[in-house]
Design a protein that fits this description.
alpha/beta; globular; 8 strands
Length: about 100
Amino acid sequence: MVTNFVFYLPVQCGAQGIATVDPGKLTYANDPAFPPLEYLEDGEVVGLDIDIGNALARELGLEAVVFKVAFDGLILAVQGGRVDLINSGSYIAWGDIQPGES
């Protein structure tokens, strides 16, 4: 079985730094229903994906903010401008991609 990890980060970098949904914060969508990658522990989202998201935010000099959302709302959260990235288990059906898309 081959597993691909894709970190989709639709932020813009420029002379002023990184443009995010909320200045100074890296807001990422996460469905905490997949332990050990992401799950709720005492009401807090924890797991490997959360550790990775927090490390990315720290490296970018931003505060990490977890936006909890159901799996079927992950892409909609990005498209709707509510989050900067998806940091959660997701997949793509490669057969559904049309020529010229990526």
